[in-house]
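Hi, here's the filled form for the chain we discussed.

Project: internal
Contact: R.S.
Residues: 314
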Amino acid sequence: MPIRAAYGLELDLSDLVVVHAITGDEFVDSLDYVNRLVLPLLRARSVRLVQICRAGKSDTDGVRNEALLVGKTPGGLMGAISWTYRDVIRSTSTAQGASVAGKQLSPQNATVTMATIQVQALTIGKRQVTLAVFRQLEDEEIIQPLHADLSGEPWGRVNYHPDKCADEKEHIHVVWQKDDELRRATVYEPSVAAHEHLYAGLYVEALIADGLQSTHRHPEGAKRLRVTPSKLEDGVGSAQFIHRGVLFEGPIRNHFAYAYPDGHRRQETALWRDVHKVAGPEATAESIAEHLPALGYTRSWQRLKELPQLFIAV
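And the returned structure, exactly as it came back:
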């Protein structure tokens, strides 16, 4: 729709000048959008567009005119200039703020560099990794399910929440290396971890077979116990509880879940028989609980929590 002033007359914008200060680190997509969508409108209105940049690292060097688009003169935004804003940052020994475009982040080209005041930055070559590149890393758990050991070498923590999870339960985001590739992981504090483990459900089944009911006080090894049956009659429900400071989660068979709140439906001998089929004929609730890696998860959490923070560019 044409821009019109009062009385239905179109505005004369030929005396308008738009000044763009280029840094030399603009995103390629941003330059393309302006060239395709903005410049045709300016040319149609005979609007002058002037691009300027620094002439050198010193303020006394002034600025220089890199490109001038007047009226309908063809052309596009200049993306490469002789003295970029990154050059200015480097010359003053401050942290690099350049973006990374068109490169895959991997252990071969990524490094952790030390900037001023001992700030560690995640970089590709000489350029600092951006949020967009960080989001492209594959999200994979770093803590193994069975023993709660680490699945690879952790690089550091990143104080950025790519999934808009800043207000969720306490957690950290970690960059880590798996073989020759980098991954990112979300790791939760032990008391809210909901660490999935096969023996977690089996432990609750053993407690129920041992006579535990929902009206009873939860045992020391299964604080804040919560049992949720499946809506399907032959389905598998779930159980959550805190064992030695770690929140565990695991599958529980439906007939155990229904026996938990209703002691009259309980057939403890039959329930123990079902537990022993999986855990072995000599298994007890205590022996099953020994398989839960509470100490392993706590150690892994502490190690990741103490990692240095890595800084990435906005």
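Let me know if anything looks off before we file it.
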